[in-house]
Amino acid sequence: MTTVLKTKTILLGAAAAMALAACVPGGYTGANNPDQSPNANRNSGAITGALIGGAIGATRKGDEKLTKAAAGAIVGGLVGGAIGAQLDRQAQELRRDLTTNGVSVVRSGNQLIVTMPQDVLFATDSASVRPDLQRDLYTLAGSLNRYPDTTVEVIGHTDNTGTAAYNLQLSQRRAQAVSNILVDAGVPGYRVVPIGRGESQPIASNLTPEGRQANRRVEFVIRPNR
């Protein structure tokens, strides 16, 4: 290996180390999930960004390939880390502000999933959001407005009571009704995507009342645009 190549290899390794070292939290584990750092999204974003940036740089031709890969790793790590840190902040704020029993906020890679049970939003067999149950939607809208560089999928789910066709239609109407409230609260319509899944994606058994209740829900999947 030539001296130049060795130097470039060292640069690439240093870039990766810098991207990762800037994001490792030092072993802290959060109270909500003892197996996951509160900076997990930031860390995972930084690692992904560094790898992508390095790969982009490594595809360049010529003697500067490794140097460009190192630069790509640094830039990618910084961008990915910033996105992950934003998701961490937004998740913490939503957990603090969404206090209704049964509402959950879960980090899953580079996205947040907010789940609201049907009973938090709708009466049985209805697609009209109860006026006295809209507070959490306005809280969520406020969060989306504070973090404008994201999109949100509003996904309606039902249990298997009734026909599949009716449940699909009901879930679509519910997703649209919730999306309309977010837009009315100031979230631009192009950022909100209503989707109905009907009974096709249960998270519990439909053989018990408790399982059917869990399956009747609206999920908000928040994703960064970058």
UniProtKB/TrEMBL annotation:
PROSITE patterns: OMPA_1 (PS01068), OMPA_2 (PS51123), PROKAR_LIPOPROTEIN (PS51257)
Keyword annotations: Cell outer membrane, Membrane, Signal
Any one GO CC term of the record: cell outer membrane
Pfam families: OmpA
Species, as recorded: Thioclava atlantica
Main localization, broad class: membrane
Coiled coil: none
Domain named OmpA-like: residues: 109-226
Protein known as: OmpA family protein
Signal peptide location: 1-21
InterPro entries, alphabetized: Bact_OuterMem_StrucFunc, OMP_bac, OmpA-like, OMPA-like_CS, OmpA-like_sf
Domain of life per record: Bacteria
